[in-house]
Amino acid sequence: MLRKNKENLPDTVKTGKKKKKVPLIIGGVVVAIIAVSFAASKMTPKALPQVPVSAVTKEDLTAKVDTSGTVESLRTKTYFSPVNAAIAQYPLKVGEVVKPGDSLVAFDVSTLEQDNQKAQLNVSATVNGSKDSMAKAAQTQQKANEAAGKVPTLQANVDSYQEYVASLKTAIADRTRELSDWAKQTSTDVSVALTQAQADLTKLQQDLEAQKGEQQQINAQAEELQASIAEAKKNNQDTADLERQMKDLKAQAENMEPAIDDLTSQINDKSDEVTQLQIDQIESQSASDPTTDAQIVEWQNELESATTELSELQSELAEQKSLADSADGVQVTEAAKAQMQATNNIAELEAATLEELLEKGKQGLQAEFSGIVSKADASQGSAATQGMELITIASNEEVAVNVTVSKYDYDKLKEGQKASITIADHTYKGTVSRISKMATTNEKGAPVIWAEVKIDNPDDNIFLGVEAKVSIETGSAKGVVSVPANAVNTGKDSTFCYVVKDGVIARQEVETGISSSEYTEIKSGLKPGDSVITELPDGFAEGMKVDEAAAGSTSGAQTADVVKE
């Protein structure tokens, strides 16, 4: 059959020309393979790019503001010489720690009277010299418009302190009056009770004496009856009746003992009551003394501090007003201020008598509280004059860290917030105690807000003037809807997150709450279980179809360019 078919082929095939057919067949096969491959590629979908996502969860968040500042004392006291005398002992240097009652300076008072007389003669010369020195030491600091800009703020501060001082004086007066009225009423009540108690005591004592007298009479009768019994027995007379009488008298005397004991106990109790009432009467009389009332003492200290601050503010206000009226403003140097303070102290001491000065010289200067010597310019053997600044103590128990926060964080601060303070390798608890209401500029020219964070648990490891790291807790929330912090984006008009909805990138506006270092609270816009894109890769945009990948995963991740190919 095959042979027959071959014989019927055209001559061209028979003569060997069929080799020219091979290339045509191979080409057809290649075309077929390409067609099948193209069709297969059309039938297989391209792999979608992946974006890193994280599920919306509920977290416990604590928001903090981290900053740093300088450790400073909240209480300082400069001790001035109360006398004109040589310094006999000056044992302390800057940085040393003192305790209450420690000796700071001791004086040689042997020539005090003579030196004091000389100092009195030099008072007027010193005052005039300080004025001249202040005038010579003054230097131009700022233009008139700079001074004028400070005047409104200073005036507001002066007005505020004047109101504060007035309120403290009123409170002290009211408290003093209340103490006096209470003491009078208490004294009256105690006096009435004491009079009654003394009368009761007298009555009890009288009753006791009556009982004892009656008992003594019965005992006397018993002794007489005993003698009669003895006489009757001696005369061989019947004594039965007498002995019955004797027994009755003894019974009466014994029956009176409980009453006598009870009266004695009542007298002891009433005596104690009288004694206590007498003590109460003394205490009520001393209770009206305002110098012993803790509240008044506290207010007095506040008043003293506020009055000093007010005086300083008024002085600065007058100075700035003077500068504002001149072409070029001037500011008193620190040396001139110190001299003015010394002059003021001399004026105060002029009223003291020589005897008082001698006594103060003998007492010397003692530390009033625990602290650190922050200034010590004098030396042993040198001469001290009245009002001369000798030593300054800064408390190491009332300390705080002065910090600054940026314009992005100041609105988060509130007085009373708790903080963690790190000084070297020691950590302390702190509380935000004051927040400035006026911004200043830092060394980079950026506006910052000053705040004071009081150290709640200071110890002997506190060093003043060193840098401290402060972390302030500005808020906390339990179990709130949260997303990773880097998933939140801030636009010009809104805050939003990129999410994956139905496999497509979408923009979801949200309302945020507090933020920790890792998470941000979402108040509205998202719910637990939603998928947020933690970081939108370059080339990805809203509306693009994507697959979700766990945040941080790199397996199978593709760029947007892969999709476009």
UniProtKB/TrEMBL annotation:
<keyword id="KW-0812">Transmembrane</keyword>
<comment type="similarity">
    <text>Belongs to the membrane fusion protein (MFP) (TC 8.A.1) family.</text>
</comment>
<keyword id="KW-0175">Coiled coil</keyword>
<protein>
    <submittedName>
        <fullName>Efflux RND transporter periplasmic adaptor subunit</fullName>
    </submittedName>
</protein>
<dbReference type="InterPro" id="IPR058637">
    <property type="entry name" value="YknX-like_C"/>
</dbReference>
<feature type="coiled-coil region">
    <location>
        <begin position="194"/>
        <end position="357"/>
    </location>
</feature>
<feature type="domain" description="YknX-like C-terminal permuted SH3-like">
    <location>
        <begin position="481"/>
        <end position="547"/>
    </location>
</feature>
<keyword id="KW-0472">Membrane</keyword>
<feature type="transmembrane region" description="Helical">
    <location>
        <begin position="21"/>
        <end position="40"/>
    </location>
</feature>
<dbReference type="Pfam" id="PF25989">
    <property type="entry name" value="YknX_C"/>
</dbReference>
<keyword id="KW-1133">Transmembrane helix</keyword>
<dbReference type="InterPro" id="IPR006143">
    <property type="entry name" value="RND_pump_MFP"/>
</dbReference>
